[in-house]
Amino acid sequence: MSYAFRFIRLGSYALVAALPLLATAVRAEGIEEIRVTARLREAPVATVPASVTVLPAAAIRARQAQHLQEMLDAAPNVNFSQGASRGRFMQVRGIGERSQFVDPVDPAVGLYIDGIDFSGLGNAGTLFDAAQVEILRGPQGTAFGAGALAGLVNIRSISPTVDPGVRLHVGASGYGGSTLGLAAGGPLAQGVAGRLAIERHRSDGYLRNSYLGRDDTNAIDELTARARLAWEPAPELSLGLTAMRVDADNGYDAFSLDNTRRTLSDQPGNDRQTSDALAFDAAWRGMDAAEIRLLATWSRSELDYGYDEDWSWPGICAGAPCEGYEYASTDRYIRDVDARSIDLRALSRGDGRLGWVAGVYAWRRDTSLDRRFFDFAAGYPPPAARFASDYDASRDAVYGELNLQATERLTLVAGLRAERFEANYADSLGVAAKPGDTLFGGQASAQYALGDAAMVYAQLARGFKAGGVNGEAIGKARQAALSPSIIAFLEQRTEFAAEALWNYELGWKTRFADDRARLALSLFAMERKDVQLKAWYNEGPQFVGYTDNAATGENRGLELELGWQPVDTLDLEFALGLLDTQIDGFVANDPDLGFVDKSGRDQAQAPNWQFHAAGEWRFAPRFFARVEYEGKDAYYLSDSDDERSEAFGLLHLAAGYRRAGLEFTAWVRNALDKDYVVHGFYFGNDPRKFYVNEPYYQFGAPRVAGVTVDYHFGG
After folding, report:
1. In the chain, what is the straight-line distance between the N-terminal and C-terminal CA atoms, in Å?
2. What does the alpha-carbon distance between residue 119 and residue 440 come to, in Å, rounded to a whole number?
3. Minimal CA–CA distance to 389: which of 306, 476, 503, 453?
4. CA atoms within a 13 Å half-sphere pointing along the CA-CB vector of 538
5. What is the greatest pairwise CA distance in the chain?
6. Alpha-carbon dihedral sign for residues 595, 598, 603, 604
7. What's the pLDDT score for residue 32?
8. What is the pLDDT of residue 31?
9. Is the Cβ–Cβ distance between 388 and 335 less than 8 Å?
10. Where are any strands of DSSP class E within 467-568?
């Protein structure tokens, strides 16, 4: 099917969906303006020539979201894969990682929190006291380089102000859920404002361990603390400091041999993350021509991720035909991640026709791994073993952007980034590598104003993602004495190449019906080169994971977002994502068929459609009711096999009471108690079936009900 036909079809869907809004003409106060901060210059979302979703604090509270994973389904063409206690592996427009085990991973979707790079460290994505969540789709090559090949998620907390204020948040829910949060801010001295926020969220999790008789082997226990200072020592100088700590002590016991919510593990795992971070920012406006901005960050994260590898207990086959076939083992990954960055940029000032930004950037991340596992290559019962690796990576970049007001209605923007990537890898199996590359990205766009409240745009953007190392696959294949052909196959993939992506996009954004309605529509086509895909090879209990480069990939589709306030007491929202993907030139080891060319197949984690619809009705002076319904199409769970999730839809309900600073809400998530998949495997792990290959699923949260009380006054 041709690109033109697909885009015509996708565009027709969008226009049909938009007709009810286009026919509306109601006078009103209008929808609040929302601004995007995760760009070189802050700007209203309606004026940004790109596909962007901004979810403000009100939307976060409405969804009762504690963690980023509970907001992602509200945005079109955004997905996540769990494989842990939280959905910390994100995909935008079908591109992104699904897991991390041994080898280092540089994510295709970046995660930033108050300017600090938490990419690949998604347990830190807690949302108490967040001002908004920004989701930028498509490559962010000029501003973020290799850290945002497919897109970026930016969490911004509430900034300190001189207006005193306090917020108290208390919640209780099923499955042992409880939340207590407190935030307070205000003036500390002349020209100095501060804000402190702290929250603890707990839950027993949504599965029962039948073997141990416990309901808490998937427990959530997350503590988030953040302190922010803002100081203006002079009219032309602003300084800011952010300090934060996230301590997640979560369980991980998510898979059942019976594919139910009842696990059989005798040694449940864990998914812990402790992160401490600092960010210092400064803005100097002492020159007429330019403003100078500096952002320096530091973070240290300690991660402890592990699981019961056999998902059962040693006696599961006692007295049965499979007696003697069972095995018992655990796998544990302990990582220390130290990161620091500095971003120095100059931005033009004034109202001239030509604006510009120029900057330099340096980033360092050092990762050490201590893996503790059972070594099946040494016989059975397998002895306890350890594997260690060190991966030190750096990125240094220069970037710039020009913004030309060509006419009263036409704006042209061009940006470019050059980035040098270097890394040093060494492990305890004797594998060493020093990947490096010089990478280029950026974007060019044309934006045309159709009036005071509408614009169309065209964008061409290039993103890139650095290459890396398949250290574990090579060393493990040699150690396990796999067949020479497999070892030779893997040795050709000791390093994998950088990936490049071209994004072609057309968009339309408008506000109408006396500012009571907004619409954003984008059509995109993405061309991927040297696509980085995860593949697996296994022989019995031996699993070898590696990243390979496919020749090309294609991702194209549509994103539509509508907001409408037909009357003062009713808010309606709708988001739709349509996606068509294809991979070519990728050879993977299928568990049943051996090495298979996957050319022509959809990419993993890329549903063909997904949607989100919500309505809130304020039916009395202080009472409200809210309904949300969201869903997504079936999609492949892996690029190595053809196992798929099922299409699903989830209903969320809420009702409550609001008055001056007080909000009481009773809510139900997944009200119809649907089972839906958030991660999956296809291999043999059940001794009762003599390890026949079959699918195994991790399920999302079932029906959960709760109540929250939110009280605030002041700023």
Report:
1. 54
2. 20
3. 476
4. 20
5. 84
6. negative
7. 61
8. 54
9. no
10. 468-469, 495-496, 499-512, 517-539, 542-567
The conformation of residue 118, written as its DSSP 8-state character, comes to -
Q: For residue 59, which of 113, 132, 123 has the smallest C-alpha distance?
A: 132
Number of neighbouring beta carbons within 10 Å of residue 415: 22
On whether the CB atoms of residues 71 and 60 are closer than 8 A, the answer is: yes
Residue 334 reports pLDDT greater than 90: yes
pLDDT, position 547? 86
- Cα 534 to chain centroid distance, Å, stands at 18
CATH number for 492: 2.40.170.20
Q: What torsion, rounded to 10 degrees, do the Cα atoms 666, 671, 677, 678 define?
A: -10
Residue 287 has a CB neighbour count (10 Å cut-off) of: 11
Provide the angle, in degrees to the nearest 10, between the axes of the packed helices 471-479 and 484-491. 160
Q: Is 4 among the domain residues?
A: no
3-state secondary structure of 68: helix
Summarize the confidence of residues 219-236 as an average pLDDT. Answer: 97
Report yes or no on 251 lying in a domain. yes
What is the structure's pLDDT at 358?
Answer: 98
Mean pLDDT of 99-114: 91
pLDDT for residue 1? 42
Residue 2 lies in a domain: no
**Closest Cα partner for 312 from 322, 325, 324, 327?**
327
The sign of the dihedral angle between the CA atoms of 102, 103, 104, 110 is: negative
342: enclosing H helix or E strand:
strand 330-348
Could you read off the pLDDT of 344-354 as tens digits, one per residue?
999 999 888 99
Q: Which two tokens stand for residue 359?
A: 């900057």
Domain of residue 196 covers 10-714
Tell me which of 278 and 492 has the higher pLDDT. 278
Q: Distance (Å, rounded) from C-alpha 144 to C-alpha 464?
A: 10
Tell whether 5 is covered by a domain. Answer: no
Which tokens hold the place of 412?
Answer: 């042209």
Within 10 A of 66 (CB to CB), how many other CB atoms are there? 25
Tokens linked to 119? 């990419």
Q: Given this model, what pLDDT does residue 586 score?
A: 87
At 419-453, the pLDDT tens digits run: 999 999 999 988 888 999 999 999 999 999 999 99
d(CA 494, CA 489): 10
d(C-alpha 138, C-alpha 464), whole Å: 11
Cβ neighbours of residue 394 closer than 8 Å, sequence gap 6 or more: 362, 363, 364, 365, 421, 422, 423
Reduced to 3 states (helix: H, G, I; strand: E, B; else coil), residue 149 is coil
Q: Above 80 in pLDDT, residue 591?
A: no
SS3 (DSSP) at 61: helix
Pairing of strands 704-714, 662-669: antiparallel
pTM: 0.93
What is the average per-residue pLDDT within 119-125? Answer: 95
Beta strands in 406-516 (DSSP E): 410-427, 432-433, 436-449, 454-465, 468-469, 495-496, 499-512
Reply yes or no on whether the pLDDT at 541 is more than 70.
Answer: no
Question: What string of DSSP letters covers 224-265?
Answer: EEEEEEEEEEETTEEEEEEEEEEEEEEEE----TTSSSEE--
Secondary structure tally for the chain: helices H, strands E: 4, 40
Burial class (CB in 10 A: 0-12, 13-18, 19+), 5: exposed
Beta bridge partners of 456: 448, 508
Nearest in space to 698 (alpha carbons), one of 154, 86, 48, 72: 86
Number of domains in the chain: 1
> What is the C-alpha to C-alpha distance for residues 79 and 645, in angstroms, rounded to an integer?
13
> Which amino acid does the sequence have at 662?
L
Neighbouring residues of 433: CB distance < 8 A, sequence distance ≥ 6: 423, 425, 469, 471, 494, 495
